[in-house]
Amino acid sequence: SSNLVGLSAPPLSALISPEPVRHSRIPELPLDSSLLFEFLLFLYLLVALFVQYINIYRTVWWYPYSHPAASTSLNFHLMDYHLAIFITVMLARRLVWTIVSEVSQSSGGSLLRYVVLIAARLSLLTMCGWVLCWTLVNLCKNYSVLNLLFLGYPFGVYVPLCCFHQEGGKSQTAPADCDYPADHQQTELTETLFFRPRDFLFLLRENLREQFSSPPHMPIHNCPPHTHSHTPELIRAEVEELKSDFNRRIKEVLFNSLFSAYYVAFLPLCFVKSTQYYDMRWSCEHLIMVWINAFVMLMSQLLPPSYCDLLHRSAAHLGRWQKLEHGSYSNAPQHVWSESTIWPQGVLVRHSRCLYKAVGPYNVALPSDVSHARFYV
User: What is the band of 185 on the pLDDT scale with cuts at 50, 70, 90?
Assistant: First the structure.
C-alpha cells in the first residue's frame, strides 16, 4: 500500500517549495601568501633540525678542567655534512617550487625579462638537482644499503597510501540491504581495488606533482538560483569538486607534516654511530612536537576558516537524507526521488527500493550516496 501512496502523491512543486538557504557571515581573516608561508615553514624546520643536531652531538664543554671536556659545544667531527645538506634540500623542495611558480606567473613583459626568468628558474632547479645528486653519491660511499633506504622511505610509503586512492570515482551507493545484486557490488569492488598500469602511472605522476606544487587556490562558492531547473545538478557537481579538493588538502597536510617530522627528527638518528649516546626520550618528544607544529601550520594555511565556511555553505545547499525502516510512515505521502527536484525538510522519498526522509532544509543529495551524507555531517 505504501507503493500506491508514493505513486499517487501529487508533484512536490505543487505542495511546498523550500525556503532559500541563509548563510552566516564570518569576518575575513588574513591569510599568508604561499611564498611567505613556505619560507616560514622552511625556517621553522631548519631551526628544529638544528635543535635535533644539538641533542645528538652536544658536548660537555662547560665541565671544569679537572674533567675531560671538548673545546666546542658540538662534536662537529662526528656530523655528516652530506646528510645535513640532503635533509635541507628535501625540506626546501616546496619553497623552491613555490618560487619557481611565482616567477612563472609573473613572467609577463618584454622578451628579455622572460628569457632571464626562464634562465633563473632553470639554474635554480639545476642547482638543487646537482646538490641532491652530489650528496646522494657521497652518502652511498659511506653508508650501507639499509641506511640509504631510510632516505627515501616516506616516498615509498606515499605511493601505496595516496596513489591508490582514486579521486572523483564512483559514488559510494547501494547499501547492502537495498536489494542490489551481489555480483554487481562485487564487480564495482573489483574495479575499485585493481587498476590498470596506465591508471597507476597517471595517479603516481599526479600525486608526485602535488608534492612539488604550491598550495591549491581557494575554491569559490556561488549560491545557485533556487528556481533554475539545473540547480540540483550544479550543487552536486560543486560538492564533488569540493570533496576532491578537501581530500587532496587533507592528504597534503598529513603527508607533508609526517615528511617534515621524519626528515627533521628521525632521519638524523638513523645515521648516528652505534658508539654514540644521545637522549632517546628527548628525541622522541622532539619528533612528536615537530609533527604537531608542522601539522598545525599546514592546517591553518590549507584549511583556513574561510575554506571551512565554504564547505559549510555547500553542505547547506546539498542537504542530507535519513534512511528509515521498511514499513514506517506507511500512511504518509511518499514520492519517487528525482534528481532535478529540490526537496524540502521532512519529505519522504523512495530511492533504490529504500525509504528516506529529508533532514536538511534544502535537499538535493543522492539518498543512497554515503559520501554525500558524510559531506553534510
Answer: very low
Q: Which residue has the higher pLDDT, 103 or 261?
A: 261
User: Residue 10, Cα to own-chain centre: how many angstroms?
Assistant: 45
Question: Which pTM was predicted?
Answer: 0.76
**Residue bearing cell 579538493:** 245
Residue 62: per-residue pLDDT: 58
Residue 281 DSSP class: H
Q: Rounded to whole angstroms, how far apart are CA atoms 24 and 49?
A: 43
Phi-psi label, residue 28: left if phi above 0, alpha if psi -120 to 50, beta otherwise: beta
Does the pLDDT of residue 105 top 90, yes or no?
Answer: no
Q: pLDDT value at position 46?
A: 96
Q: What is the 3-state secondary structure (H, E, C) of 100-126?
A: HHHHHHCCCCCHHHHHHHHHHHHHHHH
pLDDT tens by residue, 22-65 = 777 878 888 888 899 999 999 999 999 999 999 888 876 555 55
- Separation CA 39–CA 68 (nearest Å): 41
Three-state DSSP string of 55-94: HHHECCCCCCCCCCCCCCCECHHHCCHHHHHHHHHHHCHH
Which of 121-125, 189-193, 224-228 has the highest average model confidence (pLDDT)?
121-125
Residues sharing a CB contact under 8 Å with residue 94, sequence separation 6 or more, in sequence order: 38, 41, 42, 211, 212, 214, 256
Query: 334-336 and 321-323 as β-strands: parallel, antiparallel, unpaired?
Result: unpaired
Q: What average pLDDT does the chain have?
A: 77
Among residues 290, 282, 286, 285, which one has the least CA distance to residue 256? 290
- The C-alpha atoms of residue 322 and residue 310 are separated, in whole angstroms, by 24
- Eight-state DSSP code of residue 74: B
* DSSP-derived secondary structure for 122-172: HHHHHHHHHHHHHHHHHHHHHS-HHHHHGGGHHHHHHHHHHTTPPTT----
Whole-number Å distance between alpha carbons of 116 and 244:
37
Q: Are strands 348-351 and 334-336 parallel, antiparallel or unpaired?
A: parallel
Q: Are 236 and 365 in contact (CB under 8 A)?
A: yes
Cell 529540490, residue located: 342
Closest CA to 317 of 371, 376, 270: 376
Q: CA torsion 291→292→297→302, rounded to 10°?
A: 80
